[in-house]
Design goal:
This protein is mainly β. Among the domains are: 408 residues, Neuraminidase (6 Propeller); 104 residues, no CATH class; 117 residues, PH-domain like; 90 residues, no CATH class. The chain is built from 5 helices and 71 strands. Strands 27, 28, 29, 30, 31, 32, 33 and 34 form an 8-stranded antiparallel β-sheet that branches. Strands 7, 8, 9, 10, 11, 14 and 15 form a 7-stranded antiparallel β-sheet that branches. It has a 7-stranded antiparallel β-sheet with strand order 39-38-37-36-42-41-40. Its main location: membrane.
Length: 1122
């Protein structure tokens, strides 16, 4: 889990942050002013200082915040001056934007604020549509509105070139003042409250935020233009109100609530991607009419409120269809304020002892949580001179009391302030239903709310006694005190907090954090006496202990080998009932009895047989498959059944597996785990994958590994691909990359980077099928898209009434399958919907029509939670990663690793070693445009593909200069847009957007850029080149003897130093495969000299070309549907 921060402000205006990986509050020493309130997100923190101005603190990152300014220089040809800046009166400006409508000279570009700086001077962009231009960067056209080309022709009358300059945001990890200026000048009054959120309104790139602020006069302002490249935003815009507002709260999605001066609450409606400010307000009554609300906090699907009598309330029925909810539920505890952070976790500040509390037990099914627990961690610089033994072994949270309505008192030995915490398992809360809002708009999303809370609200304070609370409460209850000289707290006093913000704190009810456990870290005096053990020492001790245990076991077993075995052979049988997809027509599901028979021989080797017993024409028959012939077990994506496929070498050739369906998902997982262990035992495979393993990923995110044999790359008789055995590894990824040193990285569908921990199993593999350590929780998020189609008619305009020949009005991207909001489900039962449905802008046309139709895309996110031998590498999301190639016996430290962020930034990972495969930090490598694919091969050759399809080579990359010095633009092959690149020891392969595979010719040590491209074949999705220059691909379509499979693993045969392009293809597992990497397989094939018998036998093996022929696909052909 990545490290995140909980922010808080004490009553003296000091700002602190508490890291999820730390054990104390760290003061923000950069703050020169006292702060009143803060609102935090993951990438930054906003605050209101004592001068009532807003300040921004952007967290520093390995990737700087850069913004590209561009302008175009336009020229026209005339017979006298040739090309010059003497333009016609009807022409565009000499310096303009890309449209030519706006005048943009170089000196008109100014820095937005003093928090920015220029990276360098203006320079000409010499890249046009993925192709390098002539020196000077000019592109030519007949006239300015016409299409531009990089080559000059006889009728080229105008030309233009693009100038680029980058500016960088420099005010990181410091408080930068935000100008209080609106569209018509300075704002009339200062700010009093602020709230930040809105990063999940739509599928916008990470960094887009909504900032709401409240002025002292009760007006609400919205900050426009906040995104990754403009963290400060553009300006303030006033939002109309039904009354005066005192406080506002904005959630991660489209929830915005505010508190009126009279104690009522208002809800903002109509917030969308196109209108982040919303359209209107709806008034919601206070939970207690006699004591109006003074504070509100919102999250994804929750709303919490605090009334003037400091009572805490939870709003039930909140969802995307009903942002107003349906009623209030009273919670135990009395708070000054509450705050909802990530994952709807709740933080609060007690009204009596001013301590920060965390709401325990908040889950997606129980959003109200269970109990308040105090955060009892020290501040940096605190001196604990009077600590009892119990306090040294205590916890960061005080103990809970399980008894009903009972307070737990815990006083220190000095008679200091006593601390009490309530458990929410107490009787009947007060439930207030709003008559006007009891009926929601649409079907609500149901969740559990604990209805056993006490109706009598008890205070959380010293000795459990509530102080007298007035009938009315002013905003002074959350004000800060004057900052005194020195430390205002005594040695044994806890801090007094005024505000807390958890919008950037990524915790949940299952987080394993130091300050969420039941045991604290010892005091600093005790910690200083503990042993300092480094990871290297720990690894060495583990290895030594393992070797000693292995030697002892071997020594003790060798003395008893001559004894006769009591049982020569043992047999185990596991039976069950399943359904089998019949191999012949009519294809249908047939009930069968399924049996796995396992037996072990006299030497301890294990094997087994699979039996399928079925009835055909009232005759009992069976199918069988030997366990040692099974090559892979694949879970199959099916909407109605829990199915998996069993492949053998012969059925891999046929593209026709044995397809089985279990009654329940649990039963299917049990069978998969058992069969996988049996297959591994029969082949003598145990433990984690080796460093030479081949990794692959299916289109549904399942991860498989194969242990390569020494003859896999042998010539002329390599091991056939269809005989390779693949086993599943827990986790869920989009791609995996590795090298022969054992460093393995992966990237999820949500662009999260993961590093392999060395374990095995996880996911559906538990017990003996999984390692007990190095298994961690893994999450992934992806978007599901559906399309709304409309046709125009002269009477009603665009409507959902189409012609009989039209596609469905709600469909998938192809239009062939109906997909409505109601019947669209997550990809599998493992996925759950998160957030709300958002839409993107209208697309102009159908793929084949010109007018009268339009469509728009709707997106909804779903989340998967699983386990596997993977640890997250924060904090930058990635789209591609590559690790340097090396030999089996080589030693490279540090290990070069390059990556591309989801924004297209090129990154170089520093500190990657065998002991620290995750590395330490990122080094940003500057580029003129965003990239999408990268690969590093032998001798530190780095090749990359830009998003416009152009290829680049990075020069002078070495161990002394890990980032190199400059990019060399490589022309694309045949005006094709490249998609992916893979670099081997001495060869470079690329795949273009049309599925063509290209080989780079002319690579030499003196000229590593090569000379030209040579076409190899088509029908290719991905390519992977290994340390022996071996070539593997994912083929788009491969014809088997029974069916056509999409996404098939293929191996290039005949690759030799004198024949680097190879000769033919060998087909392996498929379909449904989306990624493969062989960059870890550096096992050299044994050299065997075969006698030459006849000239025909010495030639290359017959080619097996890919067949892109389209035929009707059988239902059983694709094991994993893409």
């Amino acid at each position: 889990m990545p490290v995140s921060l909980l922010w808080a402000v004490d009553v003296y205006g000091r700002v602190y942050s508490l890291s999820t990986g730390g054990q104390q509050w760290e003061q923000c020493h950069d703050a020169v002013l006292e702060f009143k309130r803060v609102t935090a997100v993951q990438q930054c923190c906003w605050g209101i200082a004592c001068d009532h101005h807003i300040y921004l603190n952007v967290h520093s990152s390995d990737v700087p915040i850069r913004y590209q300014e561009e302008t175009y220089e336009n020229q026209r040809w005339n017979p006298k001056d040739n090309f010059s800046d003497h333009l016609l009166p009807s022409d565009r400006w000499h310096w303009s934007d890309i449209t030519g409508l706006e005048h943009q000279p170089l000196d008109s570009f100014l820095l937005p604020s003093t928090n920015w700086e220029w990276e360098g001077d203006w320079y000409v962009d010499e890249n046009f549509g993925g192709e390098p231009t002539e020196k000077g960067g000019w592109t030519y056209a007949m006239d300015f509105p016409a299409t531009y080309m990089k080559d000059k022709k006889w009728n080229s009358c105008v030309r233009r070139r693009r100038w680029i300059r980058y500016r960088r945001y420099k005010a990181t990890d410091t408080w930068a003042k935000i100008p209080s200026e609106g569209q018509s000048g300075p704002l009339p009054d200062p700010f009093n409250d602020i709230s930040c959120g809105g990063w999940e309104i739509s599928e916008e790139p990470r960094g887009r935020l909504s900032l709401w602020a409240v002025s002292l006069q009760g007006k609400v302002w919205f900050r426009d233009g906040i995104h990754h490249h403009s963290p400060e935003g553009d300006g303030w815009e006033e939002v109309s109100l039904p009354g005066e507002v005192v406080q506002i709260s904005c959630g991660p999605g489209d929830l915005v609530w505010a508190v009126l001066w009279e104690g009522q609450l208002i809800v903002r409606e109509g917030i969308t991607r196109d209108s982040p400010q919303g359209s209107s307000w709806v008034v919601v009554d206070s939970p207690n009419p006699e004591a109006g609300a003074i504070h509100v906090a919102v999250g994804d699907n929750v709303v919490w409120a605090v009334t003037k009598d400091n009572k805490v309330w939870f709003r039930r029925g909140i969802n995307s269809h009903n942002p107003c909810g349906s009623g209030w539920i009273g919670m135990v505890g009395e708070m000054v304020m509450v705050n909802v952070g990530l994952n709807d976790q709740v933080w609060g500040i007690s009204c009596v002892d001013r301590a920060v509390y965390f709401r325990q037990g908040v889950t997606s099914s129980e959003l109200s949580g269970k109990a308040w627990k105090v955060v009892n961690v020290p501040r940096d610089g605190d001196i604990r001179s009077h600590s009892s033994p119990n306090s040294l072994a205590g916890c960061f949270f005080s103990d809970e009391v399980q008894a009903q309505s009972v307070m737990s008192e815990d006083s220190d030995t000095e008679g200091g302030p006593q601390r009490a915490v309530l458990e929410v398992g107490c009787p009947l809360p007060a439930l207030v239903l709003s008559p006007s809002l009891s009926g929601g708009l649409g079907d609500p999303q149901w969740s559990n709310v604990d209805l056993e809370e006490t109706q009598t609200h008890l205070a959380v304070g010293p000795a459990g006694v509530r102080g007298d609370s007035p009938d009315t409460c002013s905003l002074s209850s959350v004000a800060t005190y004057t900052l005194c000289q020195g430390d205002p707290y005594g040695a044994d006093e806890h801090p007094l907090w005024a505000w807390v913000s958890g919008g950037g704190c990524g915790v949940n009810c299952h987080s394993q954090l130091n300050w969420f456990n039941s045991a604290t870290a010892l005091a600093s005096s005790v910690q200083s006496m503990s042993l300092s053990i480094s990871p290297a020492q720990t690894a060495a001790w583990r290895k030594q202990i393992f070797e000693q245990l292995s030697e002892r076991s071997k020594r003790e077993m060798d003395h008893f080998k001559h004894y006769e075995q009591a049982i020569e052979q043992s047999v185990w049988v596991k039976k069950g009932t399943m359904q089998w997809w019949r191999d012949w027509k009519p294809h249908k599901w047939v009930d069968v009895r399924f049996a796995l028979e396992q037996f072990s021989g006299p030497e301890g080797n294990q094997d087994g047989i699979l039996f399928l017993y079925y009835n055909f024409n009232e005759e009992k028959k069976y199918l069988h498959a030997f366990i040692n012939e099974v090559t892979i077990l694949v879970p199959v994506l099916n909407d109605s059944k829990h199915t998996f496929a069993v492949y053998t070498a012969e059925r891999t050739k046929q593209r026709w597996p044995i397809r089985l369906a279990a009654a329940t998902e649990v039963e299917m997982h049990d069978w998969l785990a058992l069969l996988s262990v049996s297959c591994c035992d029969s082949r003598g495979i145990q433990g984690p994958p080796s460093k030479q393993a081949i990794w692959s990923v299916t289109c549904k995110g399942d991860i498989f590994v194969c242990e390569p044999s020494p003859s896999l790359e042998a010539c002329p008789y390599p091991t056939p691909c269809d005989q390779m055995f693949w086993r599943q590894v827990g986790g869920h990824l989009r791609l995996v990359e590795c090298n022969s040193l054992g460093v393995v990285w992966g990237v999820g569908y949500d662009h999260t980077a993961w590093v392999y921990t060395g374990g095995y199993g996880g996911g559906i593999f538990q017990g003996l099928a999984s390692s007990t350590d190095n298994i961690y929780t893994q999450t992934d998020v992806k978007c599901v898209y559906i399309y709304e189609n409309q046709r125009w008619n002269p009477v009603t305009g665009y409507t959902n009434r189409g012609l009989p020949t039209d596609r469905y009005m709600w469909s998938d991207a192809t239009g062939l399958q109906e997909c409505t909001k109601a019947n669209t489900k997550p990809p599998s039962p493992h996925w759950t919907w998160v957030g709300t449905t958002s839409r993107t802008k209208y697309l102009n046309l159908f793929p084949t029509l010109k007018d009268f139709v339009r469509r728009r895309r709707w997106a909804r996110k779903c989340k998967l939670t699983t386990t596997g031998p993977w640890q997250e590498v924060p904090p930058i999301p990635l789209s591609d990663v590559t690790i340097v190639l090396c030999g089996a016996q080589s030693s490279v430290e540090p290990i070069p690793l390059w990556a591309i962020s989801n924004k297209g930034d090129v990154l170089c990972r520093l500190g990657v070693t065998l002991l620290t495969p995750a590395g330490t930090s990122w080094l940003h490598v500057g580029t003129d445009q965003p990239f999408k694919s990268i690969s590093i091969g032998g001798a530190n050759q780095v090749w990359a593909i830009a998003r416009d399809g152009s290829a680049f080579y990075r020069g002078s990359v070495s161990s002394e200069s890990p980032a190199g010095d400059c990019w060399y633009h490589i022309p694309c092959p045949g005006r094709q847009k490249l998609q992916q690149v893979s670099v081997g020891r001495t060869s470079v392969y690329t795949v273009d957007q049309n599925g063509n595979l290209w080989f780079r010719q002319g690579l030499t040590p003196s000229y590593p850029q090569g000379s030209s491209w040579e076409h190899i074949c088509n029908n290719v999705r991905k390519v992977s080149v290994g340390p022996l220059d071996q070539v593997w691909i994912i083929a788009d379509k491969v014809q088997g003897s029974h069916s056509l499979s999409c996404g098939t693993v293929c191996h290039r045969l005949g690759v030799q130093p004198m024949e680097p392009k190879g000769q033919s293809w060998d087909y392996g597992i498929g379909g449904g495969w989306d990624h493969i990497t062989v960059r870890g397989n550096s096992i050299e094939a044994p050299r065997v000299r075969m006698p030459s018998l006849t000239p025909s036998l010495t030639g290359p093996p017959p080619p097996r070309s890919l067949l892109p022929v389209m035929i009707t696909e059988m239902e059983n052909g694709n094991a994993v549907r893409c």
